[in-house]
Amino acid sequence: MDRFCVKKFKEVESTRRKYYKDPNLDSIHRASLMVPEITGTDVDISFLNHFLLKRNHENVACKITAIDFNGNKVESRLFKIEKPIVYTIQLSSLVTVPVSNYLIEFFSANNLFIPFPAVMINHRGKGFVNQVHSFNRVLNDIFENDVINQHHVKEASVDLPLTKNTDTFLLFSAGPFACKSSIDIEVITNGKTYLENIPLDVQRFGTKKISVREHFDIPEDIGGIIKAQQPEQMLFYGRMLTGQSHINGSFSANHSYYDSSTVEEYWDDVRTSTRFYPFFKDIQNIARLYPILSPSDLKISIGIFDDGKLLEEISAGNLQSPSDDYLDININSLLEKNKIDLNHISTFSVNVNANSGKMPTRIGHQLVYGNNILNSSIAVSLYNPNIFVPENKKSFKWGQIIVGGNFDSYIGIVADKGENPHILEHDALVKLYDKDGFFEEKHFVIKNGSAVLLKASEDLLLTNKSDVDTPNYIWCTIDSEHYGLNFFSVAYNLKTNHFSGDHGF
Fold it and tell me: What is the pLDDT of residue 468?
C-alpha cells in the first residue's frame, strides 16, 4: 500500500459546499503550520492580517513554539494579530538555543474556515531568499486525522535538476511523534528506475534532509520523475519541502504534491481542465507536467494570448499516467518556434483534454520561472468547470512581494478566462501594505484572458529604505467584483540571479 495521506478532491469540494450553506458547521478555530530551521539560513514568517481584512476577525492570536533537536519545547510566545498590517516575525532570533522546528498556531473564537493559514515562510541566506507558503501542519484533532489521513498516496511533483553545480533535495519532517522508520524514494530518468530505501530515525518535530546526489548514482544534466513514499504519521499532514540546491548553499524550493496515479478519482464529465499564467518575457517560462495523475490518457496544449485574445493553441504532446514520461514545456521556445513576438504576450494557458477515458480531478504541475541558475518552481493545479463556485462570488486575492536587499520581484495579476469565461474584463483595485499598514493603491482594468505584469522596483516603485542588507516583505490585496483573478510573484537576487516564487492566496 502506498503510504502517505490525502483527502479526496471531491470530498474537499463537498466540504466547501457545506461551509457556504452553513458557516457554523464543523467550524475551525485553529490554523497552523510548521517552519523548519535550515543550516546556513535565517528564517522568518510573513503574513498580511487576512483574518481582519478578509473576514473581519479582530481577535486572533498567534502562538509560536520553538522546539529543539530532541523534540522538546524551548518556549512559546504569543503575538496578538489585531492590526491591518504586514506581520513579519524573525524566528531564528526568537530564542538563544538551537532549534529544529517552530510550531506556528493561530487561534480565534471566529470560524477560520481553513486550517492552513496564509503565511509565507522565508529562508534567507547569502544571495538568495526562498519563499514558500505553509506546507505541513499538526492536525487539530483525531477526527480531522480520520478525514485527512484516510487515503494513502506518495508525494511527487518534484523537479529534478542535477548539474555540476546543483542537487535536488527532499526535506522529511516528523510530526508530534518520533519517527523511526524509512522512506522509499523512486527516481525515473532516461528510461531507468532507481529505488532507495532510506532509514529514518527522527525525533518528534525533527527533520532529515535527503540529497538525491548522495543517495543515487545518476548522471548529471538530466531531468526526471521523483516519488517519495513516506511512513504514516498520526495527527500530521506532512507535505515535504523539495527543491534544488546550489553548491554555494543557496536553494530554491517549494512543497511536494500528491502522486494520484494509484487513486481513481475523476470528474463526472470530460470538460477541459485549464489555467492561465503570467508570461514574463525577460526570463524563462516553463510548465512541467508529471505522470502523477489518476490513471488517464491526456492531450496537453498551450494557449498563447495577446491582450486576452487567443493567438494560437499549440500542441504540447500527450501525457499518460502512470508512465515513465513527463512533459517539459518551454513557453519561450514555443513562441520563438511559432514566430510569435514575446513582447505582445502577457499570458499563456495550460489546457488538458482526455484522449480517452475520464478527466482526473487533480492535475497538479510545476510552473517554473528563472534564468536557469536556480529557478523558481511553483506547485499549481488546473481549474475545471466542475469546481464549485458560490453564487455572486468575487475576487479577493493577496500575496507577498519581496524587494530591497538586492532583491526585486516580477508580479503577475492574471484574469483567468478558463476560471471565469463569462466576463469581458476585471475592474481591479490593488492595495499595498507594509509593516505600518496600507500605504498605496492602484487601479487596473484587466481584460479577461490577459494579465497585468509588473516589476516591483519599476512599476510599483517599491524599495527597501530601512535595511539595505535584508529584503522587505510587501503584501498586496486584489479586489474585483468578478471571480477569476489570480496572483503570482517571483523574486530574484540582482547579484546571483537566484529565483524563488509562489502563487497568492
Answer: 59
